[in-house]
Amino acid sequence: MEFRDLKSQYQKYKYEIDSAIQEVLDNANFIGGIDVKLLEKRLAEYVGVKYCITCANGTEAMTLVMMAWDIKERDAVFIPDFTFFSTGEIVSFRGATPVFVDVKRETYNIDTYKLEKAIMKTIEEGKLTPRAIIPVDLFGLPADHYEIARIANKYNLLVLEDGAQGFGGRIHGRMACSFGDAATTSFFPAKPLGCYGDGGAIFTNSDDLAKLISSIKVHGKGSNKYDNVRIGINSRLDTIQAAILNVKLTAFMEHELNDVNVVYKLYNENLCNIVEIPVIPEGYYSSFAQYTIKLKNKEQRDGLQAKLKEYDIPSMIYYVKPMHKQGAFLGIEINEKDLEVSSKLCETVLSLPMHPYMTEAEIMYISNIIIKYIKN
Ligand SMILES: *Cc1c(COP(=O)(O)O)cnc(C)c1O
């Protein structure tokens, strides 16, 4: 059994994907071109924003936004404590300080009450300048973006939606990657919309930001790439990856997003009185990058993972460590007590196989092993 079955997906779309790659090879146009342009247009339309700018990966997508906003030393950027390392890494990479904020136990997303407290505390201490918030749409579920927008407005902060896992999610019909002043996503193969290597994108409605990022991602270009008006980087999405994504985006829209939600419902029906199942708040829709359950304690979680392994069922712990316990961030001042939920989650969560190509039989098989393990 696969944790995320990319092989079945390829088999189903083999003809379309092979042809798309072949066409790029035949044209020998490996950077930019119509595949990238078309993908950017389709992604912007799907998400409902004015601009989509593709780039090399999700981490650089976020870095490009940090560069465009001139996030720098002595700036504070508020991020959830329970997320993938990138979300904090890109802040420290700019010399700024990530301020870790606890998450909500139910949704795994940033706790907006604690977020506001952390902002007020940072202002009071006066050592750092609050500049931005990076909410993460963890496991496919959009963060509480309307409340985050209210807070950002009140304290005059920028918002970058880290939608690396969130592409396809929505709140009352408004799509993930359309919130905040800018949003980013990742096309890493295992993400909701993945390519066959690395890839990423930035979304925004701002003309100025789009223009600036388009320059920074190509060596700070002015009128062309040999006219350089600022220091930038080289961060492009390969044409081959764009061609693959154009096929995969169609599959994603036609059935994959719906299919993971069918898997979620089946899992939930089987497991609702057995373990703590994912909570999708009223009006929210998740793209289920992960289906993550909570166990009673670390012992029960580790025991279940071992049991699943006996039956050749892969499972993952996202995340083993909260951000504030990562070695790279050990110099940053924190108060353990403010980050209790996130620390506890690291001991009790377990992510089960989840992808659009799961069969009902597989879901039953996994569920029954979990039920038997918990009841014993
Ligand atoms: C995967 C991920 C990223 C980084 O994306 P890459 O394309 O791997 O660089 C950033 N944030 C979150 C929450 C992620 O899951």
Written description of the protein model:
The chain has 2 domains: 6-102 and 109-247, Type I PLP-dependent aspartate aminotransferase-like (Major domain) (Aspartate Aminotransferase, domain 2), CATH 3.40.640; 254-375, Aspartate Aminotransferase, domain 1 (Alpha-Beta Complex). Helices cover 43% and strands 13% of the residues. The protein contains 11 helices and 12 strands. It has helices spanning 6-27, 34-47, 58-68, 86-93, 112-125, 145-154, 207-216, 239-271, 298-310, 340-348, 360-375; strands at residues 51-55, 75-80, 97-101, 129-133, 158-162, 170-171, 174-175, 182-186, 200-204, 284-285, 291-294, 349-352. Helix 4 (86-93) links the parallel strand 2 (75-80) and strand 3 (97-101). Helix 2 runs parallel beside helix 8 (239-271), helix 3 packs parallel to helix 4 and helix 8 packs across helix 11 (360-375). It is globular and about 70 Å long. The two termini are 24 Å apart. Pyridoxal-5'-phosphate binds next to helix 3 and helix 4.
CATH class of the largest domain: Alpha Beta
Which sheet architecture does the biggest sheet show? 7 strands, mixed
Provide mean pLDDT, rounded.
98
Going by helix content, strand content and strand pairing, the class is alpha/beta
CATH structural architecture of the largest domain:
3-Layer(aba) Sandwich
Radius of gyration: 21 Å
- Number of domain units: 2
In sequence order, what are the helices and strands, one letter per element?
HHEHEHEHEHEEEEEHHEEHHEH
Could you give the count of β-strands?
12
Share of helix among residues? 40-55%
Percent of residues in beta strands? 5-15%
Pick out the low-confidence regions. Answer: none
Bound molecules: pyridoxal-5'-phosphate
- CATH level 3 topology of the largest domain: Aspartate Aminotransferase, domain 2
CATH superfamily membership of the largest domain = Type I PLP-dependent aspartate aminotransferase-like (Major domain)
Distance between the termini: 24 Å
Shape: globular
The number of distinct helices, counting runs of at least 4 residues, comes to: 11
Neighbour order of strands in the largest sheet: 1-9-8-5-4-2-3
